[in-house]
Amino acid sequence: MSKTPEETTRPVTVDIADDELSALGYPQELRRSVGFFFSFAVQFSMIAVGSTLLLTLPLGMSQFGPAMIVPWIVGGLLQLILGATIAQMISVYPLAGGVYQIIARLSGQRTLAWQTGWLVAVAHIMSLPQLSVGLAPYIAGWFGVKLHGGWDVAMWAAGLTVIVTAINLLSVKVASFVNNLAIGAEIIGITMVIVALLVVPHATQPTSILINTGGTTGGGHWFGPFLWAILLPGLMISSFDSSGNTSEETRDAARSAPRGMMLATSSSFLVGTALIVLLLFAIPNVPEVVGSSEPTKMILESSVGSTITNIFVALAMAALVGAMLVLQLTAARILFAQARDRQMPAANWFHKLNREGVPANATVVTGVLALLFIAWSPAFDILSEMCGLAWSLGYAATAVVGLWALMTKRLPAARWNLGRFTVPAFWVAAVWGVLLSVLFVWQDPLHIGLAMLVVVAVGVLIHRLVPAADRARDWTAPPSADA
Question: What is the pTM of this model?
Fold first, then answer.
């Protein structure tokens, strides 16, 4: 039945993002209540670069010593290019589901799109236990509790995951408010440390520290350790479609989401670089720091004192809780988007929204899966590497599909784009995404590579449980004028 002229006339009060959503075949279901700052905040909070250094700096230091700043800069710049290409594609398709929607609509390969969405959702879900496991000893310490063994860590990590899930179930505005507090903690913590390292008198290393590998490259063999250290920015500067996954809750999303994402990503890289350089110059003893499991804390205590260090650690913990909120929020939107397209078993159940417009069932499932990952492995290193590989595989697939669409003239014009740098950026992004995925597997083929094969196999099984008629649906087709 055709629509009447009154029904097809665009009301002047309709947000432009609502019209884009309708043109892509969806009604407005999620509440479009946030703007550019939220798009920035989602990505900035997810990265939490200063706070995450507490947990991940040992990786870079143990692999390449203080010279890790070189692979950090190289890998960070490549990650920015990869993120910029994802941002341009988000501008074309500002939809919940992120890369799942992008691949499906550009390539028509809906199975590949589903599997990519599954991998990115798993990366976000697995980040919850990764961060909660890393946070557990610190938070337990605030209550005077010392954790003994994996079981103690798992119990505290599980409790933190349950709290985060409860906050995300309340409403997007509540989660946004808590996340804004976390961002404030992150900014205050980073600023305090940078100012302290610049102002408080302490012994400093010569500039040669920036090329000192700290004994990690014995016999002159530096290429392998360099490639391992380059994984650090791959772990920290990621989740590029977090802003995209909240596009349907963002005003003027085709502009706001990519701009917010790129501002957050680039500022995180610059601030992280400055902080790492200052920390390296403040190293008291290179061998001890390289061998430490808490190099950031050791450096700060020796250079600016325990009071500033303890305040920074507390602020960092708050910021990382905000990162957990955003990671789960993003994962739930991916599952919601797949269910909306009837590409999930029990699609109606996954698609259900609560009174506050939150995909409640999808959120609960992400929390349950996070708890299962905690039970599977309360080992921070393994969880980190699994997250990194899942993210890199998902974004590598998106970059390759984007490059193919660009070269075959299938990539639509975007309101936010890279202009004349589009073609070289997409080439670099595709090559880097594939290389980064190979590096993650090469680091530990047995545990990381095999575990990822299991994740992929589970994804295939879940998709096969979708009724055949729904799997065959083409949700990417433009809506009919008579719909």
Answer: 0.85
